[in-house]
Design a protein that fits this description.
mainly alpha; 26 helices; 71% helix; two-stranded antiparallel sheet
Amino acid sequence: MLRLALHCIIMGAVWLSHVSQLVCGCYLIEQSSCVLRTFHWSLSHSLNFTLTMKPKRRRLGVKMESFSLATPNMCFRKVSSELDSSFNGENVVCGLELEEKTAGDRNRIHFLEERNEETLSKRLRKLSRLDKVRSALELFDSMRFLGLQPNAHACNSFLSCLLRNGDIQKAFTVFEFMRKKENVTGHTYSLMLKAVAEVKGCESALRMFRELEREPKRRSCFDVVLYNTAISLCGRINNVYETERIWRVMKGDGHIGTEITYSLLVSIFVRCGRSELALDVYDEMVNNKISLREDAMYAMISACTKEEKWDLALKIFQSMLKKGMKPNLVACNTLINSLGKAGKVGLVFKVYSVLKSLGHKPDEYTWNALLTALYKANRYEDVLQLFDMIRSENLCCLNEYLYNTAMVSCQKLGYWEKAVKLLYEMEGSGLTVSTSSYNLVISACEKSRKSKVALLVYEHMAQRDCKPNTFTYLSLVRSCIWGSLWDEVEDILKVRVFFMFVTQMCGGLEEVV
């Protein structure tokens, strides 16, 4: 205000001096003295007014010295140079312009009456949580200009606000400021890993994490949250080897995983086919007295099925029920299949009762698991009875697996007539009949000493352009020997020798090609 008053008075004096030059010299002298007196009075009056006015917050348009991201021995320099050409050795202005002519042209710095860093940090956190990007940025620049430093919590909140609003460039600048002031935490690195992953992909983010690992000073800031972020990035690209390495490193550093850590590890290992590692994770989790999330429990049941750990799968299933969870149909089917392979028929039908009580409708996978469980327990009659019930009541859409389970039970019992009937029924339903299905019927005829029926099935098989295999010929030869059909045996052996010769020739041609 003082500068404005002085400017107006001087401009007024100059204007009066030009007017006075049009008249005589004496008038000029008198007029000039009058101007000087007027100037003296105006100056003193302005000073008095300025000194008596109340202090108010002022805004000063000051262009601050910008930060440079080109920092030696910093892995982030490599990543940031890929993000934008403006990051490579150029100055980045952290602030908002006074007059919005060009983006990042000027900063807006506030005169801060409050100088307590903790109080200002609380204000910065509040503005960041409310997504007041402009106000938070002005407060951050003003604190930095006055030599005040926000605490790590406030900086992380501000960094998160910038990333939420897509201001990646300013986020990198703030991160570099925090790094120079040694004000970074594990949460800071976690936020920047996510930002790099969104901009350049998970591989670039993991390279940055490995660079940070090599520096002991920065590795001291690592926490479980940062490790969880790195593991999650590995899961996005199904990098099971890097996931295992990070898990081992985290344990070596003495960090104990959280519920999120173990859930991520189990899900990634099961999805990538490393069920044995998933079981190791579960053992560690139990030792640390941490429970899995629901999605990880589903993955663990699947892992137990692959590793034939039906007792552990049942234990996890029971714990889900105790916690009030509602296992889905896939989990129930998986557990039934695991128990069925172990021959635990009683437990299988108990789980089936639970499945019905949960309101799930059994599908073809459910019925196939039940039929398999009965077959594994050598209850072949029960398999056929259950199959007839499924077919008569139309409980599900019959598929090849259900028919084959029924036909293999017929083969065990020697029910060749039922096996032939099921084969023709299967063909009539429009399903694709494989060689294994014909083999089951021929084997059932062999067990019942029905050699001629077995030959008829073989001829029918040839008419439908279904190629026999070694098991087909072996079953036919045994069946014909039982029936003393030596001529047919000789014909089958000739066909078999020709089949083997053609197969070997085709294999040799494939090798030459």
